[in-house]
Amino acid sequence: MERFARLIVAGGLALVGGLWIAMLADAWTPAWLLGVGVAALGAGANVAGFVGELEL
């Protein structure tokens, strides 16, 4: 599988997982911060996967 596809799939899974963690935890607790961090990493991986394939 190509690198951009792995980044998009892994980023999507991390984004969804992080959002679920953040949704189920109380705001500003360590679990909530972990969920927000995982979601941010997932979103970053998605962006990296898409931007890597763009041709200017």
Describe the structure.
- This protein is mainly alpha-helical and 56 residues long.
- The chain has one domain (3-51).
- The protein is 79% helix and 0% strand.
- The chain starts with a helix and ends in a 5-residue tail after the last helix.
Q: Give the H and E element order.
A: HH
Helix content: over 70%
Secondary structural class: mainly alpha
**Amount of beta strand:** under 5%
Instruction: Give the beta-strand count.
Output: 0
What is the C-alpha radius of gyration, as a whole number of Å? Answer: 13 Å
The largest sheet is:
none
3D shape: elongated
Mean pLDDT, nearest integer? Answer: 96
Number of helices: 2
Ordered list of secondary-structure elements with their pairings:
Elements: H1 3-24, H2 30-51
Helix pairs in contact: 1-2
In short:
The chain is mostly helical.
Provide key terms for this protein.
56 residues; mainly alpha; transmembrane helix; Major facilitator superfamily (MFS) profile domain-containing protein; transmembrane
